[in-house]
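Task card 7
Instruction: Convert sequence to structure tokens.
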Amino acid sequence: MFIKIRRDTLIILLLAFILIVCGRLIIYVAYASSAEVAEGVPIAGIIVKGNDIVPIDSIRYNVENSGLREGSYIDGDILRTSIRELPVTEAEVNAEKFVRRSTIPGTKIAPIAGADVTVNKQTGIVTVTVIEDFSTINITGNSTTSSDNSNLGKSTSVYNYSIAG
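Output:
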């Protein structure tokens, strides 16, 4: 017994089958030709927590300067960058130092009192926890007073702020 199928239905079914087979073949070829990470775990990204004033981009830039950036990878307990190799713990300490130097854009004020940088060696995610404290900043104010006789003798005060220390 034969099942009667119209010719256009048969062509549509045949095309669907060919598309499914080609899709599977393309997925297999893409997987087979993908580059394996034989070096280790690549640095996947930087997560910043606890900042209010200092921009995230400024903090990320300083963390990347310590070697924890895209293109670097972790091989066991060693961080391998394009320039050098160093222990992951040393890179974390360097990143903490660099994060503390992050300033508010356009100023020399660095309100970050403390930072904690941790690297997950299985996923390659760098987590930065920041503590901002403005009480640790020494700002001295120099006040100069000038009088303007054309403005009915009122005096105006001008404050010049600078970072001490």
